[in-house]
From TrEMBL:
PANTHER family: BLR4922 PROTEIN, IRON-SULFUR DOMAIN CONTAINING PROTEIN
Domain of life: Bacteria
Name of the protein in question: Rieske 2Fe-2S domain-containing protein
InterPro entries: Cholesterol_7-desaturase, Rieske_2Fe-2S, Rieske_2Fe-2S_sf
PROSITE patterns, per the entry: RIESKE (PS51296)
Pfam families: Rieske
GO molecular function: 2 iron, 2 sulfur cluster binding; metal ion binding; monooxygenase activity; oxidoreductase activity, acting on paired donors, with incorporation or reduction of molecular oxygen
Native organism: Iningainema tapete BLCC-T55
Keywords per UniProt: 2Fe-2S, Iron, Iron-sulfur, Metal-binding, Oxidoreductase
Ranges for domain Rieske: 7-111
Amino acid sequence: MLPGVPWLLAHRSMLKPNQPMKVSLYANDYVLWQDSLGKISCLPNACPHMGAMLSEGWCVTKPDGSSVVACPFHALEFDSAGCTVLPGSNKPTKSLIEPLELIIQGDFIWSYGGEEPKAPIPTTLNEIASEYEFVGYVADISVKTDLLTMLLNMHDYNHQNGTHRPLFEIEEVQFNQFIDDGHHSHAYFDLPRTKPTLSDILKNPGLLVLPKVIQVHLENCFPSMVIVHAHSPMATVRECHLFVPESPNHTRTYVLVFMKVHNPIFHLFKRNLLHLASVIVKQDAEILEKLYSNTPQHIKLNNEVGMEWVRRNFESFPTVVQPNLSRAEVNYNFEQLHVGTRSR
């Protein structure tokens, strides 16, 4: 599960004031909450009395605006340091459960899960947040798959006209370029579509803003994030797919959507934009839970350079190594050297 990686546990918008939220990381469960002053706290989710899930409890607001989380079993209240006041006592105990260290950057809540940091927090999200309007989050789900399989799916550029064919009516994948920069990469490919029917449009009005050929630019920050860069005359969109290893066999994923509107009419499509992102994640989750992930791979398709990038970084982490120069990577690295970065 790559200990030492910074993982984005949540965006601040996902935390309703004084409502406990359960998050999992590295096979440990935590309770995350935000008080009315905006302070965010995180404790192990098991009450040290009898193990009740604190995330199933409630928050109690104190006179100064701070809040504590209350155990649903015996109503013991724990502050952000993991201290409580036992019945019949007026003094808080020492810390009984060690808080999870958080790194909060604006609205982004990061954590190394108690592990020694081996990679820096990517700056990409802060750059996006400073330039784009935050639209919302969708598809916060736990998928029954390991982290590596999840990442291989997200960097499998051949699955667009299979897994996502029912949504976009994609005819084929026309791969253009892969730019490999260690733990950071970019992929560019085109997706010609069949013309949607009236029935398709009525189900997903957001299809109206999609072009005949979807030009895809994926920015990849290993291993926790894939950003879809989408451009149109009406708006520029940044669709950020996040991944968190909950346990060896479960990976959490969710999507943060940002946009910059060029035509005011695009505001009418905000909800459809979130809906499309949600459907994409649902389709990926469904196929991931129907894979025999241990099946030996006897077939190699074109355009698997993204998957090779994932495997190489997974095996060598935290060290950044040169590409292993498989046939696909030789072709795309050659193109990068002689053609240069494609215009974005």
